[in-house]
Amino acid sequence: MILIVDDDLAIRTSLALLLKKEGFSVKGASSPEDTFEVLKNEIPELILLDLNFSIETSGDEGMQLLQRIHKYNPKIPVILITGWGTIDLAVKGMKEGARDFITKPWQNEYLLQSINTILNLANQAPQSANRRKLEQKFHFENIVGEDPKLLQILETVGRVSSTDAPVLITGESGTGKELIAEAIHTNSKRKTKPFVKVNLGGISSTLFESELFGHVRGAFTDAKTDRAGRFEMAHKGTIFLDEIGELDLSSQVKLLRVLQERTFEPLGSSKSRTVDVRIICATNRNLEEMVAQGTFREDLFYRINLITVKLPALRERPGDIPILAEFFMNNLKVIYERPTLQLSPTALKWLKTLTLQGNIRQLKNIVERTVLLAGDDVLEAEDFKRNMNSDFLPAFKSSLPEVGTITLEEMEYQMIIRAMEFHQQKISKVARALGITRFALYRRLEKYGISYESEN
């Protein structure tokens, strides 16, 4: 049973008709007193609570009722219904235990999607993670490892994949966030539809709208034809927003709008388009700290992290290092047509001791580089050690400033300035020298106020 709490009979009736049509049993309540009369006799599967369900529009009465419900039975999921102008209040409600918030006027499809997602998650009990059992139920072929931390993550991924819950994947660079996002899509009901990846760290704020929402012919000087944006390309499928912590505040507002309303307008168009996508985001930054610092919107943070998956660093699961190294080695046998390639036991043991700040990506690079540089097909620990000297002790180490004398941002600024001078402001060459995309370089040039000449 779903309980609808709203003083407006028309809203209760409208929601009840929608939910009954979908097979739900429904009850209504017009006041806090009516709500607890229902709760005394029956525990609903979910409550839809309008924050402004009285003459007052402050939302205080709704917040107090939410607190009372959560105190009475914290296991009852609550979805808040609110106007766009009171989203700050909805965010406060999320802190008080609400599971989601829907803005008025709501879209029936999105409301049902949210209800089904929350009910599905509530009905799926976590199970003990076992790689063999997980492989029988889900597709995790590209994710390598048997560490208990990883298996617990895969169990969570398996449970949430079948829902449309927004997922936030966090973890250090190189821990496999994109692979987890792909696994969620592959095991979802949307698996036959598009999986669109967007690296937000590589899109400048000036190109954000065009890249994500598309543009129409004539929207700007070089817009000679209509162009579909990433959201339109991902319609009915999944969109993976990587490096979401890199978005500036103005872009965050635009993104929140489409996540909230499921509509967008291509650049240069006044016609809204509806989109049905599942949202998966990833970042290596601490979004909670960014929220506290005012550099990441709190309402966007709560919109994207109904489920959070935190990936452990590779040094936190050292037992998987030999397994991953063998996996990479087997791939290299095929790529380089060297079927007798293998890792010695001493090499595997030595690799297991590394901290690997770059995680899985760094391990893969180390194995491949050592294969290319070593003469023999049996790689020993010494082969890796010779390679590691250049990997961990670069020639410029002595020129680095002392710890504490300069911030990371100041160092980045100075390196960009030096690269721009050295390559005479040729953006492509500067980006290549710094190991980033041109879009990522443009973002940093804007961030630091560094002037540059556009490439033709």
First-last Cα distance: 62 Å
What does the largest sheet look like?
A: 5 strands, parallel
Q: Strand pairing plus helix content: what structural class? A: alpha/beta
**Overall tally of structural domains:** 4
By CATH reckoning, the class of the largest domain would read Alpha Beta
Shape label: globular
Helix content: 40-55%
**From the alpha-carbon coordinates, what is the Rg to the nearest angstrom?**
26 Å
How does this structure look, described?
This protein is an alpha/beta fold and 456 residues long. It has helices at 9-21, 32-41, 60-72, 87-95, 108-123, 131-137, 148-161, 177-186, 208-213, 230-233, 249-261, 287-293, 298-304, 320-335, 345-351, 359-373, 381-392, 408-422, 427-434, 438-448; strands at 2-5, 26-29, 46-50, 78-83, 100-104, 167-170, 195-199, 238-242, 263-264, 273-274, 278-283, 307-310, 342-343, 378-379. The strands form four sheets. Strands 2-1-3-4-5 form a five-stranded parallel beta sheet, sandwiched between helices. Strands 7-8-11-6-12 form a five-stranded parallel beta sheet.
